Amino acid sequence: MSRSWQFWLGLLVSAVFLYLALVGLRLDEVWQNIRTARYAWLIPGVAVYFLAVWGRTWRWHYLLASIQKIKLSSLFPVVVIGYMGNNIYPARAGEVLRAYVLKRREGVSISSSLATILVERVFDGVVMLFFIFVSLPFAPMPPYLRRLVVWSSILFFGVLGGFFLIASKPDWAKSLYYRAIESFIPARFRAKVEGILDRFMEGLGGLRRPQDVLMIFFASVFIWLTETTKYWFVMHGFEFHVPFYVLMLMTAVVNLATTLPSSPGYIGTFDAPGIRILVQFGVPGPIAAGYTLVLHAALWLPITLLGIFYMLKERVVLLSGVAE
């Protein structure tokens, strides 16, 4: 029932955002812009996007190093499977899928993996806010964006500060949750819960040294600048031009918006904010909508297809392993 409730809530949110994305636009003009786009620009866009995926793989490799050293070539398919899962399953289930596949392949505990993945998501949010702050001298901040920045800052910097505190004082954190477990968890479950939280603490090991934190931050900046470059390439397929900082702002806003519950693939929550940002900077609505919808598809389709390929391959490996 809980999953059904989440599913229908996501569909409702996506429907509302998709309506906001297209309301007031002539759909025939939107389709005309999609139909006449210069799709050759998708080729360098997709190529640079997978450079960003490789950057994500390296960042995860760096975060996992305090737990277990894993080759980049082994991690890349797992990362792709995870992003495929986010694209086709609700509630970012791909993050759990990624941790599960890593457990099956490399023996890393799911709790430890999820801790590193949460660190990734927090740093992604911090970089999105950094992109917005960089754009502020050049771009006016409307009220809705100001509210988004305030609440996102409270969320991401609050969680990051909590992670820093836990990582820097592991003995204190363990004594705290051990006391909580003794007070609130039935005796027969205590050992299991303690084990899960201990392994989660292991996953925060990458935050204990300042140089590691800086490395993760700069890796995250590289990832998102590279992904924004895909936005820039795809822009050349349409009849408009905006400065790169506008695309940085668009990257930040649409990715912060996709933290809201929505249908798989972030339908609506990606599109409405993207169109609104471009219109704010003088791009005609039908062109902004055509570009954003094509960009969304170009971000969704390649990694989803590659993820399905790796997942099918992984299933063959798992089944043969069971058979053996």
Descriptive report:
The chain has one domain (38-265, 295-323). The chain is globular. The protein has 324 residues and is mostly helical. The two termini are 37 Å apart. It is 79% helix and 0% strand. Helix 3 packs across helix 4, helix 6 (110-135) crosses helix 9 (187-203) and helix 10 (210-235) crosses helix 11. Residues 316-324 have low confidence and may be disordered. It has 13 helices and no strands. The protein has helices at residues 2-22, 27-35, 42-64, 72-88, 93-106, 110-135, 143-168, 170-184, 187-203, 210-235, 244-257, 271-280, 285-323. The longest helix has 39 residues, at 285-323.
Outline the fold blueprint.
Layout: H1 2-22, H2 27-35, H3 42-64, H4 72-88, H5 93-106, H6 110-135, H7 143-168, H8 170-184, H9 187-203, H10 210-235, H11 244-257, H12 271-280, H13 285-323
Helix pairs in contact: 1-12, 2-13, 3-4, 3-6, 3-10, 3-13, 4-5, 4-13, 5-6, 6-7, 6-9, 6-10, 6-11, 8-9, 10-11, 11-12, 12-13
State the main characteristics:
mainly alpha; about 325 residues
Summarize the structure.
This protein is mainly α and 324 residues long. It has 13 helices and no strands. It has one domain (38-265, 295-323).
Characterize the main sheet: none
Helix content: over 70%
Arithmetic mean of pLDDT: 88
Terminal CA distance reads 37 Å
Radius of gyration: 21 Å
Q: What are the segments in which pLDDT stays under 50 over at least 5 consecutive residues?
A: 316-324
Total discrete domains? 1
Structural class: mainly alpha
**What's the count of strands?**
0
* Percent of sequence in beta strands: under 5%
